[in-house]
Amino acid sequence: MKNSFLFILLLFSILMMLFILIPILVLYSFVPFFDFIIIFSNRSFLETINVTFLAGLISTFFIAILGIPLGYLMARTDFPGKNFVQGLIDLPLVVPDTVAGLIIFLTFYSQGILGAPLSRAGINFVNTLYGIVVAMMFVGAPFMINTSKSGFLSVDPKLEKVSLSLGASKISTFFNVTLPLSLDSIVNGLVMTWAKGVSSFGSIIVIAYFPMVAPTYIYNQFLLFGTDASAIAAGAFLLITLIIFAISRFITTKMMRWLRK
Amino acid sequence: MRLELKGVEKNLGKFHLGPINLDIDENIVILGPTGAGKTTLLEIIAGFIKPDKGRILFMGKDFTNIPPEKRRIGLLYQDYQLFPHMNVRKNISYGLRMSNIGKENIEKSVEEISIKLGIMNLLDRNVYNLSGGEKQRVALARALVIEPQILLLDEPFSALDEETKHTLMDEVRKIIDDVKSLVIYVMHDQEDAYLMGKNFAILFGGKIVSVGKRDDVFRRPANVAIAKFLGYKNIFTREDLKSIGLDLEGEYFTIDEKDILINENGKIKLKGIVEGYEYLRDKSRITIKVNGIKIEKKVDGIFSFEREIKISFDPEKIIPLKG
Questions:
Q1: Is 90 exceeded by the pLDDT of residue A218?
Q2: H helix intervals, B99-150
Q3: Which chain A residues in 66-125 lie under 8 Å from chain B, judged by CB atoms?
Q4: Residues pairing with B253 in the sheet
Q5: What is the chain B residue with the closest CA to A170?
Q6: Which residues does B contribute to its contact with A (CB < 8 Å)?
Q7: Rounded to a whole number, what is the distance in Å from the CA of B74 to chain A's nearest CA?
Q8: Tens digit of pLDDT for each residue in B175-209?
Q9: Beta-bridge partners for B290
Q10: What's the ipTM?
Q11: Residue A149 has pLDDT above 70, yes or no
């Protein structure tokens, strides 16, 4: 009984993994090995990777600063209209990428409600790194807010009460008790937010076709040179992302273990 | 030490706590069934919930608006709530680390309290694999090391098995007798509570219905519901008593099982039939049918079914109750 259950689990898991793996292998079958190596010395490709990951990091940083407090508030307080706020938080998840791009463009272009004052201050969003960052922030925000919220929810409020009773202030309680105990979820949220950012395409091209992020570059290669050229760039981007993912997971697992000690 | 609650009220949706008026100058047990408002009252005293009305005074000073972290109230929860990401030593020293008293003083205080509670050998363990009893002592050490003015114990024994519970009750009582804090127990089990405290306040339906010395409180339940909660098994109507030849003023009555004698030494002598049996841990409880009413009594011996039995009691032991 136990074994047959395990067998079914394993069978379905393997099918699931194959469903992800096969298309990736198909992609690499289109990539000639020599061209694949060459692309890592291609300046415009490397610049693209640089822009993508840098914008991903900056947007994740800002989302963390703004999103974690909101996640805490959503986990620990009740207020009228809370469901509406939750709906708003989830909205970027259901809005099509291109619509998100349009929203961002209309808000941040030089005549937009936020774009106009900021452009007077010298910050322009159209076809700049800033534009990429705000687009990534918009689509990545729900991941940070919701994962940190579920992390905070998993911390028993009584632990915070004990901390307060022992003389710790609310801020001190947050940093000494709540945050360390929900760090798993928060780190997960950071990784997910970053991943959503660097994989975004539709939301970014409307406001910033240039400087090109990797997804735009791959699309551009496809338009100009067809499947082979775009497959090479896609394969390289995928490999780098996979390596970064693996490293960040490795570091965070080590870090969590160290923190638990 | 003196804690006064003056007209404290809190509305929580359907539930209304208070008005609570309590003057606590000795260790006390706040006893009440589930849903009576014990946790709300405890959280008001600790400062986690602000009352809608009323004031809380500690040593004459208004405490009502003082935040929990400034109250110096030690808190022990039923499930201990040890910080899972800290080892025993860090758990105990947490409160001290929040006040700048220096590393050496912290170490000294942690050591002192750990010796007192017999947990020196646990200091470098992590909290996951401590036994229930060990966890409780660590939580108690963590609360006591800050020398709290008030120590709140929320259902301190509910999470323990019977054997551990009785050993720990003794231990905790000894430790508590020694501390300078004003100790407030919040409990729902009347048998456990009876063993822990000398002073009682009974909380029922959001209101304090009885306050006083243990025996006074347990011997004078105000109404039928409280009598049942305090473990009174025999609730009679006036008609019931008439059927055994007693006519008293009042609506309902009860009598402590202890005051029913299985002999003829009492003034009221009755004959009944053993009708039911309930096996308890160390004793059993029989139901005796007398002239159509049923009387329950805890007994040591063995009584066979349908056997005729002589019982008696003194009429002054009968307690009148409100409906």
A1: yes
A2: 103-116, 132-144
A3: none
A4: B236, B320
A5: B69
A6: 43, 46-48, 67-75, 77, 79, 81, 83-85, 94-95, 98-99, 142-143, 146, 148
A7: 6
A8: 888 888 999 999 998 888 888 888 999 999 899 98
A9: B293
A10: 0.86
A11: yes
Q: Give the distance, in angstroms, between the CA of residue B77 and the centroid of all CA atoms in the same chain.
A: 14
pLDDT score for A1: 58
In chain B, the number of structural domains is 2
- Nearest Cα of chain B lies from the Cα of A149 at a distance, in angstroms, of 19
Task: For residue A233, report the phi and psi dihedrals to the nearest 5 degrees.
Answer: -65, -40
From B188, B220, B252, give the residue that closes a domain: B220
pTM of the full structure: 0.85
According to the model, what pLDDT value does residue A168 have?
96
Tell me if B12 sits within 8 A of B40, measured CB to CB: yes
Percentage of chain A surpassing pLDDT 90?
87
User: What does the pLDDT look like over B293-322, one tens digit per residue?
Assistant: 899 988 887 777 778 888 999 988 999 998
In terms of domains, do B68 and B12 share one?
Answer: yes
B210 and B267 share one domain: no
Q: C-alpha angle with apex B223: B222 to B226, nearest 5 degrees?
A: 85
Question: Do B57 and B13 belong together in one domain?
Answer: yes
Residues in chain A within 8 Å Cβ distance of B75: 161-162, 165
CA distance to A129, A134, B211, per residue, from A46 (Å): 16, 22, 78
Please tell me if residue A161 touches chain B, with a CB cutoff of 8 Å. yes
Does one domain contain both B81 and B186?
yes
- What distance in Å separates the CA atoms of residue A96 and residue B66, rounded to the nearest whole number? 50
Same domain, B188 and B293: no
Q: Which domain holds residue B120?
A: 3-220
Q: Which residue type occupies B203?
A: L
B186 lies in the same domain as B268: no
Residue of A nearest to B98 (CA): A168
